[in-house]
Every structure is written in C-alpha cells, then in structure tokens.
Amino acid sequence: MLSLEALSVRYGKHIALDNVHLRVDPGETVVILGANGAGKSSLLKAVSGLVTPEPGARISLDGRELTGVPPHRIPDEGIALVPEGRGIFTALSVDENIALGAYSRRARAGEARQRDFIFDLFPRLAERRRQVAGTMSGGEQQMVAIARALMSDPRLLMLDEPSLGLAPVVVGELFDALGRIGASGVALLLVEQNVTISLELAARGYLLEVGRVVGEGSAAELKEDPAVRQAFLGLND
Amino acid sequence: MITAFSFAALAAVFAALAAAPFFLGTYGIGFLLGLVGYVTLASAWALFSGPTRYVSLATVAFFGIGAYTVAVLYETLPSWLVLVVAALIGLFVALLVGLSTLRLAGVYFVIFTFGLAELIRQLVTWYEVNVTGTLGRYLFVDYGPEVVYWKLLALCAVTLAIGYFIKRSRWGLALKMIGDDEVVAEHCGLPTARVKLALFAASSVIITLVGAIQAPRWTYIEPTIVFNPTISFLTLIMALLGGAGRLWGPVVGAVPLFLLFEWLSANFPDHYSIILGLLFIAIVFVLPNGVLGFFEEHWNRLRARGSAGRTELSQDREAG
C-alpha cells in the first residue's frame, strides 16, 4: 500500500533521513520507534508533502506516486495525518473541527458515515459537540485531532506521537480506539516513543536511529530485540 | 442567518445614507464621506486580516496607489476607466507582494507591509522628482463631493456584501483554519497559499479603489499626503476595536473612532498622535477580541448554557 523507497530528507547540512525503505500493507498497523531526533517526524512530513525529499526518493500509495504532491492534495489521495501536539483548531468547536476535517473533495461524499463512525468511536465528543476544542483536556483534544483526520475518510492514518503528554489511563483509552480504527480496515502508521503499548497495537515495526532504519520486524520480534529492550524499555538482559 | 427584516433595515439605512447629501451642507457631506471611507477601509482590511490574523500595515500603500493613479490619469481617461486602471494596478501589486510575502508570518509580515508602504512612497517621490520634475499634482474634477460620496457608499455596500458571502460560504470556516493553524489547515486539504493570496488581492483592490475614489477630495496630491502611514494605523485600530473577525466589527469600530478623531484633530491638533497611540495600546489590552467579541462573551455568560450559540455548520456548507 504505502511504500517508501530510498527516502532521504535534509535540512541544510543536517541529514534527517538517510535512505529509508519502508512499507505499510493494506489495513496493517505499523509503528516507527525511535528516540527524539531519529527522524520519525520528518518521515511523516515527507509523506504528507510538507518537506521535499532528496532526489531519487519514491513515495507511493497503491502505486500512485506521491513525491511532489502538495500537502493540501494529500487528503484526496487517502492519507490523513494527526501531527504532533494535537493538530486541532483550538479556537473552534468540536463540531467545526470535525466539519473542517471533511474539507477535501474525497471526504465530502462519505461525510455522514464518517461522522457516525467517529461519534461511535468517541462518544465523549458526541456529548461535547459545541465545546471549544481549546478548553478540553489533552486526551479529548487528541480525540478531536483523530476525529478530524478520520473525516477525510483515509485509507492510511498517520499519527505523530499520539500518547505524548497524556496520562497512562488516557493513553490506554486512546490506543483502544486506534485498535478499533485499525480493525475497521484503515491502515495505521504510527510514530511513538511509548514502545510497550505501541507494540501491542502494531503488527510490525521499524526502529529508526539518527535517520536510518536499524531494525525491523514483527511486533513480537521487536519486543525481544535487545536494541529495543535496551534503548526504550530500560531492560538489560 | 440574515432575516428579511434585518435585510430591509439594512437597505433602509443605505437608502438614508444615499439621500443624506440632499439634506446636508458641504461640511456634512465631507464628514460622511470620510466616515464611509474609513468604514470601507476597515472592512476591506478585515476581509483578509480578520480570519487569517495576518496584520497588514500596507493599507496606505494601496490607498496611495489608487489616489496617484487618478492624479496621473484623470485628464486623459474617462473617470470610470481610471478606476478600472487603478484597480488593475492595485491587483498587480497585491499579487506581486502576496506571492513574495505570504510565506512570512507574524511580526515579519507586519514589518514587511509597513516597509512596503514606505518603499512605494519613496519610489513615487523619486519618479516625480527625477522624471516628471514636480512633486505635487493638482486634481480638478467637474463633479462635487456628493458624487465621491455616492461612489464610496456603493463600494462600501459591495465590500460588506463580499464579506457576508465569504462568511456564509464554506470558505468562511476554511479561512478560520488559516488563522488558527496553517499546517493543520493544509492537512485538511485547504490550499492555504492560494486562499491567502486571493483574499489579500480582493482586500487590496478595494483599498486601492477607496484611494482612487477619494483622491479628488484633496485637489492637491503629493506622496506625503496620500501615503501617510496614519491611514494604515487608523484602519487597523478601527477594525481591531470593533472585532476584525466579525462582519460588522470594522463598522462598529470605525464609526465611534472616526467621530473621536474628528473631534480630537479639531480640539487637540498638537496632542492628536499621542492620544492616538495611547488609544491603540488601550484597545489591544482591554478589548483583544474587539467590542463585539467583548459583548458576545458577556452575553454568553449571562445566557443559560446549552442553547445554540454558534451557527449551524451544515447551513454554511450548503450555502457554499
């Protein structure tokens, strides 16, 4: 489905991503693990068209070339992003945020169906449709961000550190919802530092270190990987 | 959103304003003319700066371009054609400026637009001194101030209508996205650069036309008069006072401030600028959301919660 080949991203002299190869199969949940500055966010930005990769890179979704597609066309290609730090319109209400998520052409057709799905997924949002998003709790804001992204009826949903700054119990709720989104057939590509919970959700994962893929495998394999265990779980064998 | 009643009331107000010159003396007409001019400037300014929150100080750059175009061409072309030419020049400059600067954000955009007005003033001055050989231009037209006033009133109505239709369309909400978070707006599928450019161009063309229509009022035009930065600042304060994010905000702000400035400049000509500055600071601190925002906030607090406060999105979308 999503395929990244020879993806390199550079900011001036600084190399953020170095020759990354990655794929996400239809309906699959994939996690990218890595520390701060490993290039995780740059990868999602490259797929969203927000940064231009170095020549030679190939980003494609179901064979359709995405390299060079401007960011506002990406939702029409079936990709939605929940950027780091929520990515909602804080001055607008929950309803308005959700309506704006359906702004792209692709989204308008399935708007009512997506709205039902979202309110079924996050009943709390249904209760607070008129509340200004900026006045909600961190977890609720993250729900709004995900709901907004889902409104574009994506085939691939990308999330940049959805658990960041949330209480463990809220993270649990959120990942349950992500599991249901995955079960509905949407492929998920998720960037996380919370290894334990994301490996429970994901089928496969990649380990990113200073811009390079240094490990990949099934979730079970990654859980046992000494590098992962040492770097993220603080476990020494 | 707008009921038949309020539409009729609005039409009556405009009809009364249009008939006013028949009952007023020269001073009265001049006064109304200035008022409608600033209402139009503030509303046009808010068309772009309100939803996007890009604070522009380039108002006088376009205003001056309009006025100068008229001063140069009024003897060679019919007056309606002069307005068309002025609008086209304003559009051209707006697109040029927009394409090169709308990637700037925050304070950089403010500074750039302020510099732009100054740059255009210096260019015009240089051209007039070195090429034409004069600095001032005389402007004698064969129509009176009431004609200027009617043209401005028509432009004012058009500006408010544009604002109304943008707010009602799905664009209205989309523009709020830009003011809130441009990156997320882009992710929602909004071509932010193009939208900003279109809006900046529309706003700038209206401002250019205000300058062009008002130009005959001066009879003598030189760069320091028509490129006076105070025009940019007054426009900005008026829009902010009323609330730049609302359709009627700039009108609500422009009317009392215009009255106040008239009174101040007549009674305290020496301290005018100081009072202006203090007022500017006070407005930003006390009424960050403008008068309308202030009242709306307190009104909502008084009212029981739960009743419908916001407009229905679905209606807006159908309208667009």
Summarize the helix and strand pattern of chain A as letters: EEEHEEEHHHHHEHEHEEHH
Question: Which sequence of strands runs across the widest sheet of chain B?
Answer: 1-2
Query: Shape of chain B, please?
Result: globular
Q: How do the strands of the widest beta sheet of chain A line up side by side? A: 6-7-8-3-9-10
* CATH fourth-tier homologous superfamily of chain A: P-loop containing nucleotide triphosphate hydrolases
Could you give a short account of the major beta sheet of chain B?
2 strands, antiparallel
* Share in β-strands of chain A: 25-35%
Please count the helical segments of chain B.
15
Multimeric organization: heterodimer
Largest sheet of chain A: 6 strands, mixed
Topology, number of strands of chain B: 2
Unreliable spans of chain B: 306-320
Relative strand content of chain B = under 5%
Number of helices of chain A: 10
Structural class of chain B, by secondary structure, is mainly alpha
Q: What Rg of chain B do the Cα atoms give?
A: 20 Å
- CATH topology annotation of chain A: Rossmann fold
- Helix content percent band of chain B: over 70%
Description of the molecule:
Chain A is α/β, with parallel strands linked by helices. Chain A has one domain: Rossmann fold. Helices cover 36% and strands 26% of the residues of chain A. Chain A contains ten helices and ten strands. Chain A has helices spanning 40-48, 94-101, 105-109, 111-121, 123-127, 138-150, 168-183, 195-201, 219-224, 226-231; strands at 2-11, 14-24, 29-34, 58-61, 64-65, 79-82, 156-160, 187-192, 204-209, 212-218. In chain A, a hairpin with a 2-residue loop joins strand 9 (204-209) and strand 10 (212-218). Chain A is globular, with a radius of gyration of 17 Å. In chain A, 47% of the residues are buried. The mean pLDDT of chain A is 89. Chain B is mainly α and 320 residues long. Chain B has one domain. A two-stranded antiparallel ribbon of chain B has the order 1-2. Mean pLDDT of chain B is 86; it is low at 306-320. Chains A and B meet through helix 2 and helix 3 of A and helix 7 and helix 8 of B.
